[in-house]
Structures are given as structure tokens and as C-alpha cells.
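Researcher: Here's a chain I'd like modeled. Treat it as a single chain, no partners, no ligands.
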Amino acid sequence: MNIATTDRYMLDTVRRRLLRNGEPVALGDRAFDLLLALAGGEGLPVPADDLTARVWPGVTVSAGNLRVQIRTLRRALGDDAVENVPGVGYRLTLPLTPAGIAGPGSSVLAEEVLVGREEELARLQDLLGRSRLVTIIGPGGVGKTCLARAAADRCEGLRVVHVELAPVRQPGLVPVVTAAALSIPVLTTDMIGAIQKALADQPALLVLDNAEHLLDEVGEFADSLLGTCPDLRLLLTSREPLNISGEQLLHLCPLSVPPEDEASPAVIRTFAAVALVLRNHQRAGWPALADAEMPALARLCRQLDGLPLALVLLAARLRDCSVADVAQALADRLHLPLPLGDAYRHDSLAHMLDWSFDLLSGEEKLLLSRLAIFAGTWQLPAAMEVCGEAPLSPPIIPALVANLVARSLVAGPVQTQNPGLRMLETIRQYVVARDPDLLRREGLHARLVRRVGHDAQSYYWQSQRLGLSKAGLESDFADLRTALDWALGGGDILAGQALVPDVLQPFNREGLYAESARYLTQAWLACDATTPPVLRAMLGLALHGEGVPIRLPYHAYRRDYARDELWDAVAALESGRDYPAYWLARGLVNAGWVLRYTGDPAQTQILWARAAAVAEAAGSYNDQSAVLSLIGWAAGCDGDMETARRSFDQSLEIAGRIGLQGNLTLLRYADAEFTNGFTDRAIAMAQEAIKDMAGLQPALRQTLSANLASYLLLNDRLEEAVPHALQALRVLIRHQYTHAFAWTFERGALIAARSGEMVFARQLMMLGEEHLIRDHRDRTGPEKMVHQRLVAALGTDHAGVPVLTQEEALERLVLLLEMGQAAAPVSG
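Model: Modeled as a single isolated chain. C-alpha cells:
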């Protein structure tokens, strides 16, 4: 490529950019420094040694580094732009015109890289307007340099000088590289004085980029400049603060990522991490990613922590592969070279993290390696318990963690937006890769299992005193999964089996029913002759009873379990002494459910009465209230409303006495009233129950809304029923609450029929019937009445009706309810 003689080039030393016909030419820092050095020759050759000294001040590099940057300039400006003068050096032949101070919004490079940082950019501009010293801190690859460039680009009226400190490894060179950026001859004897004089000419912004390895020297340098240059502002980027007077901090966090349960492609595309990947993908000219790939892309963005550098790598890998294929290809993402060009300083994620790891002390390195056991957010006491073993004693852990937070290797409360701490997954995988055997060698998995077990039991007792909506689980669910996967995977089977009964409650509260079922099933299948009887009893009763509130394959074998094992399980629990006392109450409740489903209501009530007494004796007030509501519900189903109301009132009294929510009791109370013909009382109770559903587990929220919808629908109040039915449907879809699918389809069929959608109503009726047959379930109470109304409206002969899949039916039902199609009720 030759120089286009019609092009006009302007050199803007203030904004550190070259303009071609008014448009910026993308050049990296090294290439731009080289251009400045060549331009300083004023058309004469500049010796190669002089160029190297200007571009890499104080750093020893090979001649190949200079040749690489020469080629970079020629690629950007034309082969003839830089002439090789044999025996002398290089000469710039490109005619350059000095540019004045540029206006805001002109740095194309910053705009090309900056995505999803509008709020941070506004905050940074505000800080620069109020303070003379601002430091952007954050982990490597989070985009500190890009944000600094974008902010500097918007500082009107300021001379902007960018100083790259990353290559500086020897002490005393900060003034040298700053002088080079200011085009001050490095031979002066008073380097700082010359810098102060150069910065006194006009208001200036000095950007010191990547200062984390030179904090003491940069701190002294910053103090001296700020004290003598009143019109100077300093903007630093670093992985930890300078900690000097007047410093204002901007903590830069990774880009926002979609939550785990977000499935809408349109919503996924709005998150900044996804937007960055899509932007890079699109500008590379590659085919657009389909909506169907968005959930998988969201998972990848979460795995990469929303870290911009990692996301650029991801975008580059999407050129020839689907998102699913890239997930496998990125298994070695730490070491893959990044096709990023000069806009980025690191050529791989591992290189970026080596930079931070090498700055740590021996104790900090060891603690960081041990902290990799935590896959999620954790608290200091957990770190002290799990990681505080020789040579690291628990008392020194807090100070070491503070150092790691300061160095942006551990995310603190500012970054996590909650009281906990965490390690970005990218950093965590890097640390594990440095010593893959450390976690096993130091027994950290076993220590984690013990810790999360204690947390789960503490969570249980909080739920009994405060209620589930106020109970807090200190351990992160990611760490629960890590502990369970290791233990049940062979690390310590018995410890894993003992942990499962305690973690079912927090998993269920979050609607993680599939995970509850998976771990419960895995623990049950691991039972053998060495399994303690009380542990086998607890697992078996939870699996065949209602330990997980969804339909499980084992429910089809309840009758066999009741005949062969149930009473031995109850006896084992009654005689157990080495396990938590509340296990007995919960085991008796599940035993009662098994008997209820297998046709023995009398024994069910006996077991539940025993469970209530055990819970009361143990001080498990939430469990006591819940069991009493079960007793009332069962009595109501059997037509004994006197016993039912007495049990319900006692349940509500306990809940009110200790400040627990009474939603569950009101739900069962309303169901019993409706079953016995007290419709108005049932509706009033259900309406009271849904007033405050904050903190309730999804299954309870779904059932509360669904039951109220059914009561209103059966009371011919269709328009009132529709919004509650829609709310229940959305919870069901989001959490795949399989227990309610049959009733959802039948209730939806009645709404469709009354809205005039007769074919759709028959399709939904057929799907409901299929679920009931498959799950071996019987209709009771409102469900029986809904079915009777359906049969009256639609009959039972659905021959020739087109079949819908479950997914199609749910999608159409959502649309029907959203549109509020409430036609006149269908007559017989």
C-alpha cells in the first residue's frame, strides 16, 4: 500500500491520535509513541537506538520489537510512510500537520472498546470535575484503560497526556516515561522539574495507566506533581488504590450478565456483557446470532464473569462455531491467544493474571489458591474456617483477604453489591490451573462440606424462629453444589448423604426443584449396607413423600415403599440419636404423605400429630405451625371442619405469636373451606394470603395464586380470576413446577372454554388428563369441580382434536391470559 497523496494527516499530541481526513487512525500506544519519535526528526532519519529509547524508555528490548511497530505503522499508513535509511535508522515521509485541541467525543478507539459503561463514565467525569486525583481500580481485563481513555477524551480544554506504566519494571523510571510522553529530552538532570514546567503551560490531565506494580513510586510522584502544578489533574488505572490524601476511587466492576433464570432472547440481548459480544461479532462482519443461541450465550457470559477482555475472546471464537461449540472450545480459554490488536495490552487471560499473581506475597498466593475452593460468594468466617490451616492461621486471614481485595483479585462488597466476597470465575480457574492438586492435597473439599453443613443447620433454626422469608443462608448455592458434587461423587458419600436433608429446604425455597431432586436421588442410590439406618430412612421418606414438591419417578412406587420399608424407616428415626432432632419431625411428615397418597388417612393423622409434638418439643415453631395446618387440611378434606378449624386456628396463633408468615396455613385453610362449600370464606382467606408473598418459595406462590384463580373461576368471576391464573402460570413456567401442570391445564381449559376458545380448551383438557394418568393422581376439592365444569361444557369425546405439545400449549395459554379474552360463559 502506498500513501494516498490526497489524504491529509494531522497529528494530535494532546489526544494522542492521528487524524486522516478528520477521521482517527487506530494506533496502539507503542505505534503512536513511535510515530511521535519519528515526527520529532522533522523529516530527517532517526537512529534506531534513539527510537527504541523513546518508545521503550528504561526497558531493554530486542531490535525485533522496533521492527514490529514499524510494520504496524506501515500497515496503517502505507508502505512508503516510513522509509528505511540503511546504516542510519528510519525516516517519516508522511506529511503531518499539528492538530489543535480536539473536541469531545473524538476518540474512536475508546468508543470501539467501550460498551455498557455509560453510568461509570458519567461517574468518572463527575469525579474528575471535583477531584484532582482519581484512580480507577478493578481486576485485570475489566476495561480500566478503555474507560480512562473515554473520560480523557471528554475533558474539554485540558491537555491530555497518556503514560503507559505496564512495561516499567525498574525503580525510578516513572518520571522517565512521563517525560517521554511529554516529549521532554531524557538527558535533563532535573527530570521532575522539567515535567512540572511542561505541565504548567496549560490545564492538563495526566493519565498514569497500569500503576499497580509501582504504587509507592507513583504515590510520591503524584504527590510532588499535585503540590506544584495547581492546574493538573491525575487519572490513574490500577488494580489497587494509591492510598494517598485526596484520592477518589472508582471501582470498575465486570459488565452485567443475564441471571440464570432469564430465557427471553430480547431481554438477554440488553445486558452489557452480551451486547459487547454481539457488537464485536457484528462489526467483524460475521452472521448474526439467532435468538435460539441467546440462552447459551448468556451462560457463557456468566462463566466469563462479564469480564470485557474474556468477552472479546468469546466474540472472536464465534466466527466459525455455534455458541454451544464455543463453550467446549473455551475450556482452555485462559491460555488461548487473543486476536485483539493494539487496543489491548494482554495477549491472553493467563498473561493478564500472571501480572497480578506475581505481585503477591507467599502467604497471599497460598490463601488465594485455597480460596479457589469457594465457587460463589463467601464471608470472612467461612474463609477463616475452611482456609485457616497451617501455615495460615485463622487470625491472619482477614488481613490477607483485605490485601487480595485491594489488589482486585477478590471482589469485595462494593463489587458484589452484597456483604459477601467472591473470586471471579476466570481468576478462580486460573488459580486452580496453577496447582490443580492443591484443593485435594489440603483436604479443602471436606472442610467445605463441614462448613456448608453448619450453615444449612443454622439456616433451618433461623427459619423456625424468623420464618423462611427472613432466614438467611450464609453459604452460596454454588458452594452447596461444590460440596455435594464432591461428596456424592465419591469424596465422602456419607457426608454428602447427611448434607442432603438439610439443603433441601434452601434449594426448595429458591425453586431449585430439579437440583433438589437430583441430589436426593443421587444420595438415595448411594445407600448400601454401610449406610446408617436413620440416614437411609430420612432420604427414603423425603424421596417418596414430599421432600421435593414436584412429581418424581419414585412416587409411582409409594405403595411398595409403604409396604416394605416405611415403618422400619419411622422406627429408625424414632431411635436415632446422632442426627439433628428436627429430622424426626420432618421424617414423620413425609411418612404421613406416603400413607395419605396410599389410602391410609387415619395413620396419616397419627403420624402428623406425632410430628407436631416433636416439633414443639424441639422449638421448631415454623414446622409445628406447618404440621398443624396439614392436620387441619386433611381433616377438612375428610369433612371434619370442626377439627380442621381448631388446627388451623392453632397454627395461625403460633405463627402470629413469633411473627411468622401465615400464608401456608391460610392456603390450606381456604382449601378446606372451599371443599366444604364455604366459598366466600375461602376466597377471603386466599385473598388475604396473597397480600404478601415476598420470600415465599415458588411452589407456594404458584399454589396461592392458582387456588384463588380456581375459586373465583368456579364462582363465575372470570375477569377477576384471569390475572391470578396468569401469575400462577408464570411461576410454573419459570420454575418448571411439575406438580401443578395437570391443574394448570384443566384450569386453563375452563378459562379458554369460557372465553370461546373451544378447540384450545379441548387441547388443554387432553393435556391435563395425560398428566393425571401418568402421575397416578386423583382430583380433589377445586380440581374435581373444575373437571366437572369442563365435562359439562366440552364432554369427554375429543376425537379429531389437533394435538398440542406442552410447550405450545403453555405459550398459547400465556397469550390468552395476557390478552384478557373473557368472553361470555359457555352454556352446557
